[in-house]
Amino acid sequence: MKRSLQSKIAWTLTGLAFAAVILSSWILNATDRYHFLQYVEQNQKLRNDRITEVLAKAYERSGRWEKTIGIDVAHFSELEGVHIHLLDAQRNVVWKSDELLEKSSQPKTGKEDSFEVIPIKSKDTIIGYAEISYTDPESYSTLDWHYKQAMRQGMFNTIFPVLLLSLGVSLLLSRRITRPLTEMIRLAGQMRKGNLGIRIENPPGRNELTQLAESLNHLADELQKQDKLRRNLTADVAHELRTPLTTLKSHLEALIDGVWEPTKSRFEACNEEVERLIGLVSSLESLTRAESESIDMNLEAVDLVDVTQSVIDLVLPSFESKGVRLEFDGNSSLPVPLDRDKWKQILLNLLDNALKYTGSGGNVSVRVSMDPSKEEALVTIADTGTGIRDEDLPFIFERFYRADKSRSRETGGAGIGLAIVKKYVEAHGGASEVESQLGKGTVFTIRLPIHSEVSK
């Protein structure tokens, strides 16, 4: 059974906390044990010195060793887990503390260690010996032994509450971390099912989860946009094909049924519809080439002003016949790596759009300049035509998208020209921009790098 990410994070944090507690306890215990052993060693020395000192004074009071000398020392020492064997100067046993007392109150925690023989002196003369050992093998007295047990019990009493607390905190943290991820998984699942209208609320703060949420919301926006374009593409292609095919079918049926005479004008009308289909297929082929991963770019260093001027001269008669004024501003030369044929197609498409949507008496201006700060060449094509609605601007460079919802071939075309413009400009390493106000006109801006790598 797979564990959830929340449980994995929770157990990982708990494990880390457990390891930290154990390590800290081990370090604390080792440090405490070192200092405790130092204390026991010093305390043992002081206790031994005190025992020999008391026995020496008892000897001085009696002048000799007797069975009853120092019996009180033996009694209290046994209570503390200290065993004493009193020997005279010839090392004969005077008494043993554990034999003098019928029963010791010290709990037995291990085997007795070897005795430490300490001389008993009176006026710098050895008058006897005290063999001292401890019930605890590590030379702990009863109080020392109880202190050690209390210290060990305290450590265990501290570990378990800390582990329980760390487990609770880990669960809360893991839930807080995984909650946005769970929401994102739900969003991704809805997107997979085709529900592209939902959005995830950004987590608080500015971190990786917030960036992930923004990326998913942006992905949903783009998928929704592409889904809309896909639906429009299907409808537009069907419309573009249906119109000439329907017209051609009606003409042929009229000729077959004898409604029309097979005159030259009738065949020319049919030929126009065939040419219309051929033109649509040619446009689609051009778009396919423009959208291919590798575009055949014949780049050469040319003067952008001269190349643009030649295209202006080519279309100028069409503008004059419609009564639209065409102006060009580009006096100084501007060398740019350029594909002449593709640049010509870019300008023809943009100028054709400007001419279609600008009425008689209007104005279209083309300007070539340079942006020194970015080392880019700027080409702007501005018209005083009908303009584009704000809601149409984000989609204007998409294939088959037309702001003219009437789908008129005479005004709207097939909706492929601007898509080709965008792809060819990007193939040059540049970018396309558009600004427009409804009823006032449109400005297309093309940015071309002067020195940069381009798509090939």
Automatic annotation (TrEMBL):
Histidine kinase domain: residues covered: 236-452
PROSITE patterns reported for this sequence: HAMP (PS50885), HIS_KIN (PS50109)
The membrane topology noted for this protein in its Swiss-Prot or TrEMBL record is:
Multi-pass membrane protein
Kindly list any coiled-coil regions of this protein. 206-236
Query: What are the residue boundaries of the HAMP domain, all occurrences included?
Result: 175-228
Q: What are the EC numbers?
A: 2.7.13.3
Localization, UniProt: Cell membrane
Give the stretches traversing the membrane: 9-28, 154-174
Q: What top-level class of enzyme does the UniProt entry assign?
A: transferase
> What keywords is this UniProt entry annotated with?
ATP-binding, Cell membrane, Coiled coil, Kinase, Membrane, Nucleotide-binding, Phosphoprotein, Transferase, Transmembrane, Transmembrane helix, Two-component regulatory system
Kindly name one Pfam family recorded for this protein.
HAMP
Reaction(s) this enzyme catalyzes, per UniProt: ATP + protein L-histidine = ADP + protein N-phospho-L-histidine
Gene3D superfamilies xref list: 1.10.287.130, 6.10.340.10, Histidine kinase-like ATPase, C-terminal domain
A GO term for molecular function: ATP binding
Protein name per Swiss-Prot or TrEMBL: histidine kinase
Species: Effusibacillus consociatus
